[in-house]
Sequence to fold (269 residues):
Amino acid sequence: MTRPADPRSQAIRAFARQQFGLRGTLRLHRAALGWDLLRAPINVLLAPVFLLTRILAWLTRLARWPAFSAWLSSRRIFLETAVAAQVDTAVTAFIADLDHRGIGPDATPDHVRAEIADYTATRGAVAEMVTTLLVLLSGYLLFSAATPGIISLAGPMAELRARSTAIDSFALGPGLGRLYYGVFPTALSPWFVLGTGVVLAMLGSLVTTFAGLLADPLQVATGTHRRRLDRLLTRLDAASDSGLAREHLLARTGDLSDMALSLWRMIRG
Fold:
């Protein structure tokens, strides 16, 4: 016989389903239809700064500079989006309810606030990972090429746009234009590639803003949200900090792969 789950585990499971299931995430993302459309791309740009502060906090903790490490860990790098604020409020209320029922973590209010802030930041990193996967899939479907980010996708997309424009405006008609530009490649200016990259970055930021609509229900189905909440409460019980969540490292791995692949293609010409 399977052992029944303890009350806290049951509460975590119910909260994850209610807050991040399909209905919950639809309700949550209604708040994104506003200034979040501007805050989200700024947060994507700030993500490397966040990663750097967390790595430095970890290194200074190893170097036995606990005060400086704690100061770095407490820096709030990201702009608070309306969606993140709602997640913060919901998790705070959830922990307060656990406390009221006598099954909450034994932690100070400051520690609870810090851990919840890290939890919402981790959820943002997952949204970036979803965007990276969608960009990678787009590159594979359109160009049969690896495109782990906007930089590596901008070149092929700009080339496709330039070729389509040149074919449509060919003096002898699109049919002959397609034959001509199948032999002679179109001229591609750096500014055209840059402009395409800017447009793709804007679209990518929009996707990141609403990526939770896809990511949240999947994480509920796989138990990821439940395990992440359980780890949060376990850290609060142990009075330990969250350190650097692997989701942030995975999100930045996509950026580094994107830059490395683009550099390699430039070197190869």
Notes: The mean pLDDT is 83. Residues 7-268 form one domain. The chain has one domain: 7-268. The two ends are 63 Å apart (CA to CA).
